[in-house]
Amino acid sequence: MSRSIDLAVIPGDGIGQEVVSEGLKVLSAVLPQDVKLETKEYDFGARRYHATGETLTDADLDALKQHDAILLGAIGDPSVPSGVLERGFLLKLRFAFDHHVNLRPSKLLPGVATPLAGQPEIDFVVVREGTEGPYTGNGGTIRKGTEHEVATEVSVNTAFGVERVVRDAFARAQARPRKKLTLVHKNNVLTFAGHLWTNIFNKVAQEFPEVSTDYIHVDAATIYLVTDPARFDVIVTDNLFGDIITDLAAAVSGGIGVAASGNINPSREFPSMFEPVHGSAPDIAGQGKADPTATVLSVALLLRHLGYDGEADRIDAAVTADLTERAALGARSTSQIGDALAARVAG
Ligand code: NAI
Ligand code: MG
């Protein structure tokens, strides 16, 4: 295991700045003395766009490529036209660095409120395909602006792309105690893509005899995520279905303040990127109100990806302890929560 971490840090816009500071605070606190942490900050997002018109250049990609991993806050601001930063930065980076595994754990931690009745057991991980489906920009418009406008947005599914993400999900299921993997798709209606996914899922399943498998249509999955979330352990699904069900998963398991994610390149050809699921929250930016917990949990995912499992476990434990006591602690600022978590992981 390498005893140094070379991290690219992209605070981005709005509360991204505030939560990333706290994530780095906890990261520094958890690492043992002999691990050298180097960070380089990059100024991407709205400021850069307004100043230069650039979102993410080839030179930026070359620079980012040199790092072991990337920690991102959030990118997006009301002053930038919708889609410019999403496509020009977030999607561009995911595609350029082949982040084909979008990892989103959902765990209902003690002390965290859920809108669901009772306090159900929620502890599952969604493995969302990140580079294909309808998000590739494979489409177009003709007769634009007329009553006869035509728009296509083609869902791209390759055997190569499906197999590598399905294989990753099986390996993750194999490593968890319950060893259960659910494929979520809509193979009764989207039969071409659906059969590709189902056939590859069933083929790869033979290599993982210990993993029990299940299939659920995406619409039914939204029901079970609300009525019976305990049935899920690992879910694998395509880019669009994954985008939707992970927001629902975040909502039922304690909300956006605690939802972490990783954009992972499992081959490690490019650095993986870790970020809270939430955006830049312009409504509370600059007020010290943002909950940094989702970013801190994303730092734990980052450490796990780099092989620092013990440190990641300590962060997870610190977050669990902090959340358990949170109700009794009253309102705390972003940096107060970060200080408390840093103190716990160091102690
Ligand atoms: P958002 O996640 O920024 O905010 C939604 C609501 O959740 C707001 O009321 C906000 O105050 C609250 N919230 C979010 N994070 C919070 C935290 N850590 N603690 C406490 N409250 C929190 O989503 P919204 O408003 O749709 O998007 C704002 C901007 O962020 C847009 O420009 C959007 O494109 C961008 N965005 C960027 C993402 C990324 O960088 N990966 C992901 C999602 C949105
Ligand atoms: Mg989303």
Structure in words:
This protein is α/β, with parallel strands linked by helices and 347 residues long. It folds into 2 domains: 1-100 and 257-347, Isopropylmalate Dehydrogenase, CATH 3.40.718; 114-253, Isopropylmalate Dehydrogenase, CATH 3.40.718. It is 42% helix and 20% strand. It has 11 helices and 12 strands. The strands form 2 sheets. It has a 10-stranded mixed β-sheet with strand order 2-1-3-12-11-4-5-10-8-9, sandwiched between helices. A two-stranded antiparallel sheet has the order 6-7. Helix 7 (218-227) runs parallel beside helix 8 (239-252), helix 9 (293-305) runs antiparallel to helix 10 (309-329) and helix 10 crosses helix 11. The radius of gyration is 20 Å and the shape is globular. Bound molecules: 1,4-dihydronicotinamide adenine dinucleotide and magnesium ion (MG).
- Gyration radius (Cα, Å) is 20 Å
> What share of the residues lie within helices?
40-55%
Q: Outline, from the CA principal axes?
A: globular
Top-tier CATH class of the largest domain: Alpha Beta
